[in-house]
Amino acid sequence: MISIEEWRAYRHQSVSGFQGDLSLVLLQEITVPTILDGIPGIWAPCTSGPGLLLTAEKSEGITVDGHLVDGTVALATDTTVVRFSDKLSAMATSQPGSDHLLAVWDAEAKPLQSYDSISAYPYDPEWVIEGEFIQGEQGRTVSFAHLSDQEGSLRQHQSPGDIQVTIGGTFYQLTPFASGESLIIVFGDQTNGRETYGLGRMVLVAVQADGSVILDFNRTFLPSCAFSHHFNCPFPPRNNRLPFELKAGEKLVVNY
């Protein structure tokens, strides 16, 4: 595992680099063939699964993975890079309940121009917590509310099991969601809105071969919506809202 200093440097680079969270300027669900203001091409949902179809003429100068588009091309989610110019790029993406999203990044986005750093608590080994992974039923999903969705609307995230930990002598059962090959816990605590981002924060679950887990809260990170309001982040479910101050990991976005 990389050191905490290397991890924080990686985080800084990932949010401010090419297609980093700070430069996201659009996250648009595409349900029918659509023309977007300021974005060339005609965009449509794939009919065979997640992803998008892009239709453009050669004169529009759009490239997909370096190749000029002249006709219709299929864009796989989170892999195919679309470029409109040196500054503007895009990708097909998805999230639970939305298989056909268009994400657009601008290298000159205002949040990126004003960004300085991510504030964080000092490293504290007491916040490296051991716990246990409890396997759930095959194909289990868990309901999460999301920031930009209509009130009362829920999205179903894959969640293969629960994380049981004891913190400060109190037992907690936390619910993670699956993101690719990773398990992530989105949680709230009593620092939110005062010392840390108000919505909550996230931490990766390191599952060991014997089913034990390690939660290194020093590597707690801010959700993407802390960097751009265009992201639609999940709220912590009730059992992930901790009744104490968790003073570890990332705190807030710092701007100039």
What does this 3D model show about the protein?
- This protein has helices spanning 4-16, 110-114; strands at 24-29, 34-36, 39-45, 52-56, 63-64, 67-68, 71-75, 82-83, 88-95, 98-106, 115-120, 128-135, 141-144, 155-158, 161-167, 170-174, 177-179, 182-187, 201-204, 206-207, 212-216, 250-255.
- It is mostly beta strands.
- A hairpin with a 2-residue loop joins strand 15 (161-167) and strand 16.
The 3D shape can be described as globular
Computed structural class: mainly beta
Can you list the strand order of the major beta sheet? Answer: 1-10-9-8-5-6
Separation of termini?
Answer: 32 Å
Q: What Rg do the Cα atoms give?
A: 20 Å
Strand content: 35-45%
Regarding quaternary structure, what we see is: single chain
Question: pLDDT under 50 segments (min length 5)?
Answer: none
Main sheet properties: 6 strands, antiparallel
**Number of helical runs?**
2
Give the domain tally: 2
Estimate the helix proportion, in percent.
under 10%
Q: SSE string, helix = H, strand = E? A: HEEEEEEEEEEHEEEEEEEEEEEE
Mean pLDDT: 96
Compute the number of strand runs. Answer: 22
